[in-house]
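If your schedule permits, I should be very grateful for your opinion on a structural question. What I wish to show you is a protein chain and, alongside it, a tokenised description of its three-dimensional fold. Would you kindly read the sequence against the tokens and tell me how you understand this chain to fold? Here, with my thanks, is the record as I have it:

===
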Amino acid sequence: MVEYRIDRHSGVATYVQIVQQTKQALRLGHLEPGDKLPTAREVVEATAINPNTVLKAYRELEREGLVEARRGLGTFVRRGLGAAATDSPLHSELDDWTQRARAAGLDRDDIAALFTAALEKHFLETGPDRHTPDRHSPDQRTPDRHPPHPRTQDQHSQGDPS
């Protein structure tokens, strides 16, 4: 069974943390189809959050087709995600790399920054199945580059100071 850890200082909504942690457990094989999620009451007792927050997270997971609520029985996993089982060779290689990074004096944030940079190099932020072109490719589009708002452009071209 999954145990949720809520970071109140992360800036991430509590229900989103529950959704993310459930998805991670599905990806790693800690939760499998048929497994029962903790009841809202169990999560509230373990984390001291509002029961409606747990229910909101579970509704989101249900909307995504990952779990199903069974009246009077609980919430159950419908399907798994990915193939990143903890017994895969990739998991052990990543674990070894993390140990080497710590031995080299990097802290958690340093390691997270390196890993995030590697992910961003290979994947778009819009989805896990989108491959990002090489960083030096001229046709690469970054999500934060948007054309100026037309009204803003008009104001600047007319010398409007507002």
User: Anything to note?
Assistant: The first strand starts at residue 67 and ends at 70. Residues 36 and 136 are 46 Å apart (CA to CA).
